[in-house]
Write a structure and sequence with these properties.
261 residues; alpha/beta; three-stranded mixed sheet; 5 helices
Length: 261
């Protein structure tokens, strides 16, 4: 269904996203929400034109700051995914962007100006299908949580040593997909950072760079997918991690760093 500008950030959006996730699961042949490990979405955010449209019809919008509406759209969508998968009960309007204890551990939500509907891709393990690839997930508790990345790789089915190194992956990791957010208290591991009040560079860029580097140090592969603006997607200050591994016979299809000369 079309998402109206006055619905962005409110329960009607959450309900429409939840309904779309359930349709996507059905089309993927996935019946158990536990088999869903990654949900990628794209939803509309607010623009000057859509804000004007809402006002012309006597409606109000959650915010008139278009950049803030990116976080808002992503956050409400994350709640819709969580509702569809039974991770949380239906939240209230007051919970959106405020109750950060409500989140989905498999959501990766983006938003843009080019659409007026929720686009939803559900990735999971469909039982009885077979194939060489498996997906798993976990969450990073904060921006430096390497164990959260390793947990997602293990959840996908890759057997690793207790304290693994990227060389143990040996071409079996196809890739990882992460969502991240700067902690609202402005700290990481109790240390203050300047991301939230840097007037030159928005925190979106800084946290993406940080988590991308942490992830590459785990996987040995700098070509990882890291997306920002993770409200209601993973724990506050952290974010979801999904990993796809190759468990097939023969030569693995994942990345192997080139041998040093």
């Amino acid at each position: 269904e079309k998402l109206l500008p006055e619905e962005i950030g409110y329960t009607p959006m959450i309900e429409k996203v939840a309904a779309a996730v359930k349709v996507a699961m059905e089309r993927a042949g996935i019946t158990d929400p536990k088999d869903v490990h990654y949900v990628q979405t794209k939803t509309p955010l607010l623009t000057i034109h859509t804000i004007r449209d809402a006002k012309s019809r006597g409606k109000t919008v959650w915010t008139e700051h278009t950049h803030e509406s990116m976080d808002l759209s992503n956050g409400a969508t994350g709640l819709g995914i969580a509702v569809a998968l039974g991770e949380i009960e239906m939240p209230t309007d007051a919970d959106v962007m405020h109750n950060r204890e409500l989140y989905s551990s498999v959501a990766s939500c983006s938003s843009g100006v080019e659409l007026d509907q929720a686009q939803v891709v559900v990735v999971g393990n469909a039982r009885g299908i077979g194939g060489r690839y498996r997906i798993g997930h976990s969450v990073m508790q904060d921006a430096l949580d390497q164990d959260g990345i390793w947990a997602a790789i293990r959840d996908a089915g890759l057997d690793l040593p207790e304290r693994a190194h990227w060389s143990d992956i040996d071409g079996r990791l196809v890739n990882v997909f992460l969502k991240c957010e700067a902690s609202q208290d402005g700290t990481v591991h109790g240390r203050r950072n300047a991301m939230l009040d840097d007037s030159d560079v928005h925190w979106h860029r800084q946290i993406k760079s940080c988590v991308g580097g942490v992830t590459a140090s785990v996987t040995g592969d700098p070509a990882v997918f890291v997306s920002v603006s993770a409200a209601h997607q993973g724990p506050e200050g952290g974010g979801p991690v999904a990993a796809i591994v190759d468990l097939g016979q023969g030569e693995p299809t994942g990345y192997r760093p080139p041998a040093k000369a």
